[in-house]
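Side project, low priority. Logging it here so it doesn't get lost.
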Amino acid sequence: MRIEVRNKTKNFDSYRSARVKSLFNAERGDTFSLDVDVPVDTDDWQIGVIVGPSGSGKTSIGRELFGGGKIEDLYSGWSKDKPIVDDIAPEGDFNAVTGLLAGVGLGDVPSWLRPFHALSNGQQFRAGLARVLSDGGEDTIIDEFTSVVDRQIAKIGALAFAKAFRRTKGRRVVLLSCHYDILEWVQPDWVLDTSTGEVKKKTTSENGQSSTWKLGRSTELIGSTLKSIII
């Protein structure tokens, strides 16, 4: 899918704007253009990642995918008057909801009884992932993936989410992130790097083994530890 991003704002001419242009040789900052090919048109993938530095066009690309309007905000739309166990899939099955919470690594049971705003950053991140898994949408985009949590929680949460998402059927998700360290934990089917415009796909060898994204992780995290329950 070819995406052409053309963003434009007012070309400001204030004193400070003029000084910035002069001092830093920045003639103008009111336009942003990006042309990329995003490999979303096939059905042979479940998880894709668009990664790159802040301001490189990730969100603009995300707005164009799947017909638009698919970007999920993990942190909005939560009730202040309900515990998260009631706020995720309110009409859904109890065991399914608690299973999703445990599956994304939120095994601290007392946190299930708190409203979203009372959770820590890491707990909010995982609760948001559980809600995405519960919504049943075929195509999803998550912006700022792992951006507001520390890197250890980000890696564990990314691994847990990827494992849980791959158990779903007929669903696809694109994660938008400025952090390259999540790639080896998510093990996506493809990666678009907006800093270079390059697309890399996971390959499969003749013996059926898939390639892996490696960025220096030395030990494997055992997924079963993510489902421990703390009471």
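Brief comment: Helices lie at 15-23, 58-64, 84-87, 94-103, 109-112, 121-134, 151-166, 183-186.
Revisit when time allows.
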